[in-house]
Amino acid sequence: MxxxxxELRALMNEDNxxxxxAPHKTRIIAITSGKGGxxxxxxxxxxxxxxxxxxxxxxxxxxxxxxxxxxxxxSVVPQYNLMHVINRKKTMNEIILDTEFGFxxxxxxxxxxxxxxxxxxxxxxxxxxxASLSNADIIIIDTGAGISNNVLQFLSAADxxxxxxxxxxxxxxxxxxxxxxxxxxxxxRQINLKLLVNRVHSSDEGKRISDxxxxxxxxxxxxxxxxxxxxxxxxxxxxxxxxxxxFMIINPTSKPAVCLKHIxxxxxxxxxxxxxxxxxxxxxxxxxKKK
Length: 291
Fold this sequence. Notes:
The protein is α/β, with parallel strands linked by helices. It has a single domain (2-11, 24-286), classed as 3-Layer(aba) Sandwich (Rossmann fold), CATH 3.40.50.300. The chain has 13 helices and eight strands. The chain has helices at residues 2-13, 40-52, 70-74, 82-86, 92-95, 120-131, 149-157, 169-185, 203-221, 235-243, 247-250, 255-268, 278-286; strands at residues 27-33, 58-63, 97-98, 104-106, 138-143, 160-165, 193-200, 226-232. It has an eight-stranded mixed sheet with strand order 3-4-2-5-1-6-7-8, with helices on both faces. Helix 2 crosses helix 12. Keywords: ATP-binding, Nucleotide-binding. Residues 29-246 form the CobQ/CobB/MinD/ParA nucleotide binding domain.
């Protein structure tokens, strides 16, 4: 416990929220995992809160289009979702929900795989609507676990991709598996991959797991993955799920909350990619589909 207390004091004392002055550009982050149950959606929701607490304009998009569940963690029942935009029944701005936690939320929808078969006119309409989100500072996309065409589209277009794993052997294996698929399926693009280890009991455990995955990826895939940080295992996380209220809100000084603030602080200290922004996201997301 003393070791963990020292680590947390160190995290809290760091200047986690220093932000270099820079021209406005939307940063688009995709969060993914090789398997379900590693806390991916929880990380996405609470990261959105951490960013909003910095004064950022944040939009969280539920991209888990088979089993969308961000709304469950937020305890909201969306009336409209992305499918209403695809079908031209609503505009993007009409489906965005304001949350009580300081960020905006866009619900996903089953059947969104239709994006792969849209006509050029439909693609143009979707692109125009998505472009309306360019006033955001941060867009976080919670993708589905595993790999599908939709997930690959989001991952290939995002500025940064965060792969979530835990110390469990199956999660480690699946994390390597999804990194392998990303790096082999998207050979034409350099994906900015980062690794986050969730539910650790010490910083040493997080570093050990990350080193294992990063070294294997470098050896067998010849690809560089960056370790972005860890989040402690803590009862507050399960309690937050049951109460349908994010742990950043239930206990903002808890170990997981402090860890996420630290991670967001590290992200903010890195330069936004030169090709970041909604316009370039759309070019990559829709690239190759319009003939």
